[in-house]
Design goal:
- The complex is a heterotrimer of chains A (165), B (165) and C (345).
- Chain A has 165 residues and is an alpha+beta fold.
- Chain A is 20% helix and 13% strand.
- Chain A has helices at residues 18-21, 24-38, 79-83, 125-129, 155-158, and strands at 63-64, 89-95, 108-116, 135-136, 152-153.
- In chain A, the strands form two sheets. In chain A, strands 2-3-5 form a three-stranded antiparallel beta sheet.
- The model of chain A has no long low-confidence stretch (mean pLDDT 86).
- Chain B has 165 residues and is an all-alpha fold.
- In chain B, 76% of the residues lie in helices and 0% in strands.
- In chain B, helix 1 (2-22) runs antiparallel to helix 2.
- By secondary structure, chain C is mostly helical.
- Chain C is built from twelve helices and two strands; from the N terminus they run H-H-H-E-E-H-H-H-H-H-H-H-H-H.
- Chain C has a two-stranded antiparallel ribbon.
- Chain C starts with a helix and ends with a helix.
- Classes of the chains: A alpha+beta (165), B mainly alpha (165), C mainly alpha (345).
- The interface between A and C is medium-sized, with 15 and 15 residues.
Amino acid sequence: MEPLTSKKKVLEQKPLTFAERMYLPAIAKGMAITISHFFKKEATIRYPEVEREFSTNFRGMHSLKRDEEGKERCTACGLCALSCPAEAITMIAAERKPEEKDLYREEKYASVYEINMLRCIFCGLCEEACPKEAIYLDGPIVPADYLRKDFIYGKDKLVEQPLNK
Amino acid sequence: MTTSIFYFVATLSIIFSLMVIFAKNPVHSVLYLIVTFFTFTVHYILLNAQFLAVVNFIVYMGAIMVLFLFVLMLLNLNKDNEPLKSTLIKVVGVIAGCCLLVTLAGALKATAISDPVVLRNPNLGLVKNLGKELFGPFMLPFELCSILLLSAMVGAILLTKKEKV
Amino acid sequence: MDIAFVIEKFVLVAIIFGISLVIAMYSTYAERKVAAFLQDRLGPDRAGPFGILQPLADGLKMFMKEEIIPTNASKWLFMIGPGLAMLTACIGTAVIPWGSAITIGDRVIPLQVTDINVGILYIFGVVSLGVYGVMIGGWASNNKYSLLSAIRAASQNISYEIAMGLSIIALLLVTGSMSLKEIVEGQHGWHWNVLYQPVGFILFMVCAFAETNRAPFDLPECETELIGGYHTEYSSMKLGFYLFAEYINMFVSAAVMATLYFGGYNYPGMDWVLANTGAVIGPLIGVGVFFIKIFAFIFFFMWVRWTIPRFRYDQLMHLGWKVLIPLAIANIVVTSVVIAVIEGF
């Protein structure tokens, strides 16, 4: 049969020469390779104490941002929930009361904001959809847990800590 | 001291040799045989025959009995697949046993009248002296023995080889 | 035989036993560390600083595990197996000379439990007995994989014992004695036997690898084919005994190799050191040198294990019968001819 490509290579198996059948030179060569690795720097990162640096466009856990005065930016417009392909985001909107003026930036805010981390695929579409620059996927890796209900993150876990505290 | 040790070990050797015969399981029987050989090693040490003791230890306990055990483990002897013995074989067995008994009784009677052999050199069993004896006065019988062993080995290999057509 | 002699020997035996157990314990740790370093990893480093408490944690785990004896196993033999493996591993240390004699006051204490004049053969016998632990354990488990592994162990040990014995004969031609003490004293300073018997040493070392069931000859516990090998059915401390026995064997064979071929407690310049340090410190320095050699061999065992892949069974037998034994016989012939020529027939 005519070969389709010119990449075919016929391997010729020659019988081993006496030096090759001696084993010992080959063994010495292998041992030299392994001992050279003995002195190389180990690739391990001691995880809980040391963490590997993420790349700049890494998408981790979500955080809901505050503005310069420490007010929550989210206005509960629902665009993030709409854009989410995994339907992981739910929210309930509420109206801001006069005494809560330094807590929320707009008159409307999210009283409940939940992301189901088991559904989330970390695509970053919510980040892109947000008109108020309120949500970013800039956190660490979402930690493991035992129960499904513990993966539904509310505002207590999502909202960024105020700057001055 | 030595006499009491001798009687103790001698009793043990007799007990274990009896166990070899009476053990139902062939593997147990071989294991008892190994212990019997071990008591023989102790006897050799009591006789100040260190070389014989160690050789008995290595060759009989360490090599030959391992091969015995090896074969028995592979055979997997059970009561179910024990071959039926014909009456003829049983009769022959009884006659052979009686012959052995008569020979043993005769040998025992012969030793009773002969004087016990006293070694001129009590350190004959040490390696150096034994070697000098074997390769000095007993050179010819020693070499003949080795040729006998060699021919046995060649014969065994020849038996396992199939006849070339 | 005075009472002081008995106490002295008892203390010596206790110390050697303790040392060999501790070394076996830390060999498990060292094995994991060496493996890690050779593979650019860290190894165990959580239990204690640098993970040095790891062997204790492992031992505790072994003790706390449930002990299982299979229903169809032969109960007594199943229990004797690991004990026998451990026993034969430990008694090999009895004839190894750990150092030259220490003099305290007017009492001379030899650092060797007993110096029998067939020392090498004794070691050899103990090694050949070591296979019973594996065989009995493997057969008593009543498991086909254990049995296959036990049979492999037996045939491997018997095959390599022959080559080992032949390589020792060439050594005996050079040293002219079977007592380990005399062999070591014949290698005073730098006159190590490895310089006179390089081929014999390589043969002996390869056989030692095979006898201790270490990689690349670890066919009896070849995981890919035989599950766990002869200790498939074992659990708890009985399994621990088997694993421990392997490391003690490694320690003993490292000590034997250092004694026979690498001068034991001898080192270049030892006369000067002995003359200047006194009758207690001087011999102890020799013991230290001996242990450095042993550790170097143990490291070598591990280095080989993490470099060379396992042999196939027919390759193992081919190497043993068709390569090592003829080489060993040739070595004996060459050695005896050279000795005959030097001594002028």
